[in-house]
């Protein structure tokens, strides 16, 4: 076994020949390295003659790579690519047709117990008038011509005290910015006209309708048919303390709380009605929204009146 082990590590040939071969191999490797460096220097010389090389190119010539200064791992999270320039007609291609704003809303307003409350001056207790004024209500006195005749056959003159609903002037001003306001009252013109002149000093009401413009039905008298104001029922509403006034168009009606002189803290006009009208002014058709809010057709049905579909 010892002989076999020695034989495995045995190098044939004499020792002197082996040393010479080793020396020759090293010399060849040195010359090869020298030639390689000379080739690199020669390439650098050519690059310098052509133009100044970058430091990255110099490193690449010697077999090294420069570190990446902007790799995905080093990129800033705030980095955003430059936007690609859009063609000049991109807006017309990408944007759809402009939506036309809806027509101005038409708001029909009742007078008595909606915008004002009026009393015959002779029947109004002085304490009620005093307390209402002290509470902040605005009021004024008027002489109104009645349709009745006195003993001499002359038109009777009535003396009335009128109280404005709180916020009335602000309500007329702000609602007229987005709606056409129409007065529609079941009162006679001899009374309603001077009252309206007094409260509408800035002429915010575009039109006035009095009792002769109302209609009588088999169920109620003095019903206010909105088609005499506008044929487009999708953009008209009526505000009235008496819901029977809009019996013919129940889903266009906004029933409000009646107003009396004993209610100096009433907030219906500014706090309730004005915001609702503002929202309705943005609706293409006011009837679905009013139907969902008040369900007036069902209310009329409960009162024994026929149900009217708001889509008609």
UniProtKB/TrEMBL annotation:
- Cite the GO molecular-function annotations of the record: phosphatase activity
Q: Which SUPFAM superfamilies match?
A: HAD-like
Recorded hits in Gene3D superfamilies, A to Z, give: HAD superfamily/HAD-like
Show the InterPro entries listed in the entry: Dullard_phosphatase, FCP1_dom, HAD-like_sf, HAD_sf, TIM50
Highest taxon above the source species: Eukaryota
Q: Which residues form a coiled coil?
A: none
One protein family per Pfam? NIF
Q: Which residues form the FCP1 homology domain?
A: 100-280
Q: What NCBIfam families does the record tag this protein with? A: HIF-SF_euk
Cite the PANTHER family for this sequence. DULLARD PROTEIN PHOSPHATASE
Listed name of the protein: CTD nuclear envelope phosphatase
Organism of origin is: Canna indica
Q: Upper taxonomic classification of the species?
A: Eukaryota, Viridiplantae, Streptophyta, Embryophyta, Tracheophyta
């Amino acid at each position: 076994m010892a002989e076999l082990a020695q034989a495995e590590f045995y190098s044939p040939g004499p020792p002197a020949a082996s040393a010479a071969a080793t020396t020759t191999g090293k010399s060849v490797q040195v010359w090869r390295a020298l030639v390689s460096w000379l080739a690199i220097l020669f390439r650098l010389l050519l690059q310098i003659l052509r133009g100044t090389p970058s430091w990255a190119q110099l490193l690449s010539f010697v077999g090294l790579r420069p570190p990446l200064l902007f790799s995905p791992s080093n990129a800033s999270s705030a980095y955003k690519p430059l936007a690609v320039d859009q063609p000049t007609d991109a807006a017309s291609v990408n944007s759809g047709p402009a939506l036309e704003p809806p027509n101005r809303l038409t708001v029909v307003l009742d007078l008595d117990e909606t915008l004002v409350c009026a009393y015959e001056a002779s029947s109004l207790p002085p304490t009620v008038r005093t307390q209402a004024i002290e509470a902040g209500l605005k009021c004024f006195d008027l002489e109104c011509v009645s349709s009745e005749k006195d003993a001499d056959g002359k038109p009777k003159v009535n003396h009335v005290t009128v109280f404005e609903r709180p916020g009335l002037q602000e309500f007329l001003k702000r609602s007229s910015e987005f709606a056409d306001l129409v007065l529609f009252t079941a009162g006679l013109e001899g009374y309603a006209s001077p009252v309206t002149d007094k409260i509408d000093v800035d002429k915010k009401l575009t039109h006035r309708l009095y009792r002769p413009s109302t209609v009588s039905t088999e169920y109620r008298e003095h019903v206010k048919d909105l088609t005499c104001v506008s044929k487009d029922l999708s953009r008209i509403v009526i505000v009235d303390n008496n819901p029977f006034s809009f019996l013919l168009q129940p889903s266009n009606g906004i029933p409000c709380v009646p107003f009396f002189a004993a209610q100096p803290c009433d907030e219906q006009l500014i706090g309730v009605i004005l915001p609702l009208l503002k929202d309705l002014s943005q609706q293409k058709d006011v009837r679905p929204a009013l139907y969902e809010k008040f369900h007036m057709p069902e209310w009329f049905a409960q009162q024994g009146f026929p149900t009217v579909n708001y889509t008609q």
